[in-house]
Design a protein that fits this description.
Length: about 300
């Protein structure tokens, strides 16, 4: 059944009639639909007069958000001429810091493998950064090791600076000497490689300094003396391990065993010496007091 136009009465061919009345009605409906589409949604900030509303695909403004002004980029897009936000640490620095962390932890978990990785690393930046961090830690730990309250912090800092300088200097001398000594066994070893490997072992010195500070603060003087002696022995053993790694030998198990044995021996030795020394001092004081009383009578 054919539809007839309500304006002109002619049969409608297609969707609508082309008479002026039907065309005017279609235009009016289109304008109403466009106005409904442009109306703001609930919770949406309406556009200001003369402002272009968000286009399809753009992020609409959130409730309470100030609409973009004239000349600004649309919602949800970076402003014109504004560079995207950069990370605080570059990916290269993140990689280096990760290597520093792995070296600092690995020297305790698997010292031989960690030193081997340090020797094989093409870039030594992480090792030198670890050297600087360990040096600063040692410096500040020794600065707070004052056994007497009357010693000022300035004096202790000078003392700590000298001790840190000696400790780092010994590591550098070890590294240069080892780099020259193992050339026959491993021609690929260079002086920077050897210094980098010895730099990693400085983490042990920082750990021993931390223990010394704790023992001094709680007045465990026997353990203070034991760990001071152990510090010297540990330096020699660390040099032995680093040199063997540079010379392509394997001595990780021997290294850990030697450290434990030396520590136990030092602790026992200090307590034995303390007991013998106290006994001898008591005997000397008793003899001196007996002689003095005898001369008086």
């Amino acid at each position: 059944m054919a539809n007839f136009c309500k304006y002109c009465g002619k049969p409608i061919v297609g969707d609508s009639c082309d008479c002026p009345g039907a065309v005017a009605e279609a235009q009016a409906k289109a304008q109403v639909q466009q106005a409904m589409n442009a109306a703001p949604q609930p919770g949406q900030v309406p556009p200001r007069p003369g402002q272009v509303p968000p286009q399809p695909g753009q992020v609409p403004p959130q409730p309470g958000q100030v609409p973009p002004q004239y000349g600004q980029a649309p919602y949800g897009q970076p402003q014109y001429g504004q560079a995207p936000a950069q990370p605080l640490v570059s990916p290269q620095m993140q990689t280096v810091l990760g290597e520093v962390k792995d070296l600092a932890l690995g020297i305790f978990r698997a010292p031989e493998r960690t030193l081997q990785q340090a020797a094989a690393a093409p870039v030594k930046t992480a090792q030198y950064i670890l050297l600087g961090i360990a040096s600063v830690v040692i410096l500040f730990l020794i600065s707070f090791m004052s056994p007497v309250k009357g010693i000022g912090y300035g004096t202790m800092f000078k003392f700590a600076f000298i001790c840190t300088l000696i400790t780092v200097g010994v590591r550098l001398v070890y590294g240069i000497a080892a780099g020259l000594a193992v050339r026959k066994q491993n021609p690929s070893v260079t002086i920077p490689t050897a210094i980098g490997v010895f730099s990693v072992t400085l983490v042990y010195d920082a750990a021993i300094c931390l223990l010394l500070l704790i023992f001094i603060k709680i007045s465990l003087w026997e353990l203070v003396i034991a760990f001071l002696l152990f510090w010297l022995v540990a330096s020699v053993i660390c040099a032995y391990l680093a040199t063997d790694v540079l010379a392509l030998k394997k001595s990780g198990t021997v290294f850990i065993t030697s450290l434990v044995i030396q520590l136990v021996l030092m602790v026992v030795l200090v307590f034995v010496i303390r007991g013998i020394g106290a006994s001898m001092l008591g005997d000397l004081l008793e003899d001196a007091a007996g002689s003095l009383m005898g001369s008086m009578w």
